[in-house]
Structures are given as C-alpha cells and as structure tokens.
TrEMBL record:
Keywords: FAD, Flavoprotein, NADP, Oxidoreductase. It comes from the Bacteria. The keyword NADP applies. Its cofactor is FAD. It comes from Shewanella algidipiscicola. Pfam families: FhuF, Lys_Orn_oxgnase. The keyword Cytoplasm does not apply. This is Aerobactin siderophore biosynthesis IucA/IucC-like C-terminal domain-containing protein. Residues 97-254 form the Aerobactin siderophore biosynthesis IucA/IucC-like C-terminal domain.
Length: 295
C-alpha cells in the first residue's frame, strides 16, 4: 500500500497499511520522535497470512515473538559484540540464570531422548530456533530434522512407517550425538565468548552444563546402568570431522542405510565435563545399612 499523508488539527500523519509488507516498518516507526502514523488495515480482525497456512493449522507462536537460531547466538556485530551477550544484558537476568534457562530448553530434552528412548537428533545450530520473551528463552523449536532422527540399536521393533529410523552403531559412537553435536559443535564455541563478554567464565559455563546433566540423572535413578555405560563425564571422546564428510560427498552427506561408513575421524577431544566427574557424575544409591543384604 502506498503511504499517504493526511492532516488532522494541523498535524501531519503518515498512513501505513499494516499488511505483511509494512508491519515491520510500522513497528520500527514507533520509537521515532516526531513521526506520527496511523496503522490501517482493510480487515476488522487479525488474520495473519491466511493463504500461506493450511486451513486446519494455526500459528504455534505469537507472531511478534523474537525468534533466533542457536547458531545466531554466536554471531558478532561490527564491534565484536555477540548476540547472546546482548540478549543476556537486555533480559535483565543474571547471566547464569539466563544460561540455565537456555540449557533447560536445549540440552534437557535431548538427555531423556537418548538415555530413555535411544532416540537421537542432529541438533545443530541452524536446525533449532530459540523463542524469546522479553529477551528471555522460553521455548525451542526444531526444524528440518526429518533425515537426522535415529533410534540407536533399539531392542524393540519399530512400526513399518518409521522402520527406517532404526540405526546400528558401535557403542562408542552412540554418545557422540551429545558429546560431539552439542558439546563440541556448539558449546565449545559458546563458552569462550561468554567468558569474554559476560560474567560467566568458561569453567562456570561447563559447570552449568554439568549441573544440568547431574539434575536429570539424579531424577531418573532407574536409568543408572545407562548413565554408567554412556558416561557423559568420561575423559575424552572421538573427534568426528563433519566438514570432511560433507566434502567427501557433497550430494549426500550421510548414507542413511549405513551411517557409519561415511564417518571421518581425527583423534580425540578432551571432554570439559570430565573436570566435574567427582562432584557431578551419577552415583548409584547406597543400600540402607539397616536393610538386610541378599546373598
């Protein structure tokens, strides 16, 4: 809609159609001193992009929510200021609390998926959308993961329509869906930026990660055997070179029928959580001393 000018009581206003093309402009105009505008729309009720949605669908988030990818949190501006540090500052929350909320949304759901269901994803930065309310993390959305979901070495047969998700991997490689995809590909880059631009040091960030793991494991002692078998606090893990996989075959990064055959390795990586093994690693509950012992 072409902007028009009108005069009311000698004041000049800009008329803006509030449809999709001018909504952003209307929002940006609000804080401009000396600029007055009417926001007009031909419809009497809100109807956001009606022709772009299925008739039975609805918006999952308020249309004015702030959405950023996990990868975008690492972006820096022309002054080398990161987006995540700016969001933390704007939220008004202490940095540790903001990061704890972020970890509760990002890491916490992936732990039960792995330990309870042997279900894994490839939760890299551009596939996860962080939803913010007043700059505070409130939700995470996952997208574009259809070919990156797998059930690892599942003991139970899957229904025919999802049978292709069943994947057999060497036991050592299974935990890399967390240690590599999250700890190495995301947190390894996030930690030093937080150290430089917030009050949270690298060690404190990894302690928050360890806290998150410890709290989940403490709440699910029935999975004790898996916590020991797949130790998130072990000293190191295998380095899988994702870029080398892509360069080896730029048409299909992973052969879904045999996911291991494309993998490329380059030594090992020290696990930052190993420093917290004594204080945070899962410990089996001790038998009550009054309880009779079986032979």
């Amino acid at each position: 809609m072409t902007n028009k000018k009108m005069e009311i009581d000698s004041e000049v206003f800009e008329l803006l159609g509030i449809g999709p093309f001018n909504l952003g402009l209307a929002a940006l105009s609000e804080p401009i001193d000396g600029f007055n505008c009417f926001l007009l729309d031909a419809k009497t009720s809100f109807d956001w992009h009606p022709d772009m949605l299925l008739k039975s669908s609805s918006l999952y988030n308020p249309f004015m929510s702030d959405l950023v990818t996990i990868a975008a949190l690492l972006n820096t501006d022309h002054e080398d200021k990161t987006l995540i540090s700016a969001l933390i500052m704007a939220s008004g929350l202490p940095a540790k609390e903001w990061l704890s909320r972020y970890l509760n949304l990002y890491l916490s759901p992936l732990l039960p998926a792995f330990f309870a269901y042997e279900l894994v994803f490839m939760p890299h930065g551009e596939n996860l959308i962080l939803v913010l309310d007043e700059y505070v993390p409130v939700k995470i959305l996952m997208k574009d993961i259809g070919e990156e979901v797998a059930v690892l070495n599942g003991a139970k047969p899957l229904p025919e329509d999802v049978k292709r998700l069943a994947v057999s991997l060497e036991e050592e490689m299974k935990l890399n869906y967390i240690l590599l995809d999250i700890f190495d590909c995301i947190f390894r880059y996030l930690a030093p930026l937080l150290d430089e631009q917030t009050s949270v040091s690298e060690s404190q960030f990894w302690e928050l990660v360890a806290d998150n793991v410890r709290d989940y494991q403490a709440q699910h002692p029935h999975l004790a055997a898996k916590f020991v078998q797949y130790d998130l606090f072990k000293d190191s893990f295998v380095r899988t070179c994702l870029n080398r996989i892509q360069l080896n075959n730029n048409q299909q990064m992973i052969d879904l029928a045999d996911r291991e055959k494309n993998l490329r390795f380059a030594g090992g990586i020290d696990n930052p959580l190993a420093a917290f093994r004594q204080s945070h690693a899962f410990k089996r509950p001790m038998l009550d001393s009054a309880e009779p012992k079986t032979r």
